[in-house]
Each structure stands twice: as C-alpha cells, then as structure tokens.
Design goal:
45% of the residues lie in helices and 14% in strands. The chain is α/β, with parallel strands linked by helices.
C-alpha cells in the first residue's frame, strides 16, 4: 500500500494514521514516492518517521532518484533508515521522469540515464559495504542492518532498463497504467531471463497501479482528479485523454479479481497507489487483500 504523499493538505496526523493502519495489516509493504518540485514530504525525512511509526511492514521507496542526491549522503540516510526500521527497508530507485526535479536541486539533466543511476548505486553499495570512498577518509556509517545494504528494486517500464539493471538490482519496481497483465508478464519474462543470465536468484517482481473505490463514475472521477494533480508536468488535455483507462476504479470484488490475475503471472507484490487520503479507501483495500 502506498502512502498518500502526493495528496493535498497533508499533516503529521494524516501520515501517521495511514502508516499505522498499513502496519496493522494485511499489507506486505508500505511505499512512498519522491518528487522535488511538488508539495509532497521529503522522502528521506519521512523514512525516519515511518520507521518510528511502524513495527512490522516493510518500507519501500518507490522510487528515489539517486541523481538528485549526493550518493554518499543518500547511502548514509538510507542506512540510517535501515537501522531505525530494524532492517525493514527496501530501496526502489529510478531515473525519474521530470526535468524540473533535476533543475530544482541543480542536478545535471544529462545524468538522467541508467548509466548515471548505476554509477551512483555503485557508490552507495561501496558505502554500505564499509569501503573507504576516498584516500584517508574513514568509512561512512552507520552500517545497514541488512548485509550489503537494503535490497534494490529498479523502477522501470521498459526491457532495456531491466536488462541493464540485472547486474546490481534485486528486483523490479514496475508500474502499469492500463493493467495489461499480458504486457506486464512480458516485462517480467525479460527480468527473469536477465537475472538468470547474470547468474542471480530470480528477481523480486513488483508492479503498481492507481486505485479508487466507489461507484463507477465517482471512483473514476477520483482517479482523474489525482492524475490532474500528480501529472502536472503533462498538458492537461493529455491527462484528460488517458484518465478514463488509467489505473483501476470499482468495487472490492473487481479489485480482488484484478489482483488474482497479477498473482497468476507470478507477481510477488502489487503496490496499490492511493488516489485519496481518505482512510476509508485504505480500509476497503485492506478488506480485499485480507480475503485473498
């Protein structure tokens, strides 16, 4: 289950209530995304709060963009989150899709590549391994609870990205706009093959999609409002055109049927992306997951 970090009018109470409700179950992971030029909470600051507010659920960044951070400081912050959460952290990383985030922090847009991300991940892994990162510099702690650092998922919707990440990632943090199960399975097959060719255990396969409960018109309108807000870097007419077929909207039984289809193709986790900060939406999703 994804935190409502991209919704308006958030405060500590809303975030804490969501975190604690997710932690109560039956969800496997609590997820949240990163943006810079937006009104969402800072991802790394929120990580500390989520570690304190929860005890059971895994904490998953979906996704952090390493190119927007100093890689040593990012590794230190994530290792701290792993310590505070007693080893419950999984780190999803991606190149990001918005140039304004790069410009906002003075990052070079030309690094918005898989190579740019992989180079920074390599530095992070060195930090987590306790290596000295420069001559006469002591290792940067703390040491993560998880040996070698938190598991890494690559955020991707394309086969080229998946293949290039097989050398260093532990799995895939995918997303589906139209809930096309067959298309998602094709990408999973790319990952399975790439990981096998790299001599690694099978990848952790994750996909995600937006969701809303309610009557057909009400739920679809909720998704539309969320997309209009979140996808503010895309011309509104394009968002309006895609909104009727993006994400999922409907009843509990309909969501259960969709989740079973993803389970049938070997999906390890589906990350449900909320389109509202209303706790009733979370409770309805919990009822569905609890019955699967």
């Amino acid at each position: 289950m994804t935190m409502p970090v991209m919704e308006p009018d958030l405060d500590a109470r809303v975030l804490r209530d969501w975190a604690q409700a997710i932690d109560e179950g039956p969800f496997s992971s609590l997820c949240w995304g990163e943006r810079i030029a937006f009104e969402n909470p800072d991802s790394l600051t929120l990580l500390g709060a989520l570690a304190a507010w929860t005890d059971r659920v895994r904490l998953v960044t979906t996704v952090i963009v390493p190119q927007l951070h100093d890689p040593v400081m990012l590794a230190k912050a994530l290792a701290t989150g792993d310590v505070l959460s007693a080893g419950r952290l999984t780190v999803g990383v991606g190149v990001g899709g918005r140039h304004e985030d790069y410009h906002a922090v003075g990052a070079e847009p030309k690094t918005q590549t898989m190579r740019g991300m992989a180079d920074r991940v390599a530095v992070m892994k060195r930090v987590w391994a306790g290596d000295s990162i420069a001559d006469s510099v002591r290792p940067v702690g703390p040491s993560p609870v998880q040996s070698g650092g938190p598991p890494l998922l690559v955020g991707s919707i394309g086969p080229k990205t998946i293949r290039s990440a097989a050398a260093w990632a532990d799995g895939l943090a995918g997303t589906t706009l139209d809930l096309d199960v067959a298309k998602q399975n094709e990408l999973f097959d790319v990952a399975r093959t790439a990981w096998a060719e790299a001599g690694k255990p099978k990848p952790h396969l994750v996909t995600s999609f937006w969701f809303a409960f309610g009557s057909p018109d009400q739920a679809r309108a909720q998704v539309h409002r969320h997309l209009r807000r979140y996808m503010n870097w895309i011309p509104a007419e394009y968002v309006d055109a895609m909104a009727p077929t993006t994400g999922w909207a409907g009843s509990e039984d309909e969501l259960a049927a969709v989740l079973r289809k993803f389970e049938d193709i070997g999906t390890d986790e589906v990350q449900l992306i909320t389109t509202s900060s209303d706790l009733d939406q979370l409770r309805r999703a919990a009822d569905v997951v609890g019955r699967l």
